[in-house]
Amino acid sequence: MGIFELIFIAFGLSMDAFAVALCKGASIKKICFKHMVIVGIYFGLFQALMPMIGYLLGYNFIKKIEYIDHYIILILLFIIGVTMIRDAFKKEEVDNSLGFKNMFMLSIATSIDALSVGITFSFLEISILSSCLIIGVFTFFLSLIGVKIGNIFGNKYRFISCIIGGFVLILIGIKIFFEHLGIINF
Q1: How many domains does the chain have?
Q2: For residue 8, how many other CB atoms are within 10 A of its CB?
Q3: Which is it for the CA torsion 61, 64, 65, 67, positive or negative?
Q4: pLDDT value for 95
Q5: Model-level pTM greater than 0.85?
């Protein structure tokens, strides 16, 4: 596998993280570079670690949990999406959206697909360290950009951004769920 194919894989894997980063940016009232870096590190690190874990675990283990991974993604994204929608209606401006628990759940939810990519990499005998580094760095930078873009539009339209962002997370979870069930294929 060449570098261009790996970049396309990194781009595809990072799209969920980018979408969630947009939502995170919209939920932060006053953004600073630190916020962007926090989101980028979480998403980039998890997108880099999951292929490595998949590579190390191998095909047999994934086959055992494959039937429930879409449930995990659906539940995590649904909970976070509903929380964003509920928070849009709150009067107080509590901004704990970058807390460990929230970011950890989002990072796992947006990187589970990367686990199976790692398994594929083991079959193709691809250099896993360089692949994980490319995927992680690519996701890191796309997440930085996503937070900034989300914040630019989110501050002007905070209420509607939180509502839309929450629904986007829920819809991503539903899409992944239906893809795993074989009902839709995108």
Answers
A1: 1
A2: 11
A3: positive
A4: 46
A5: no
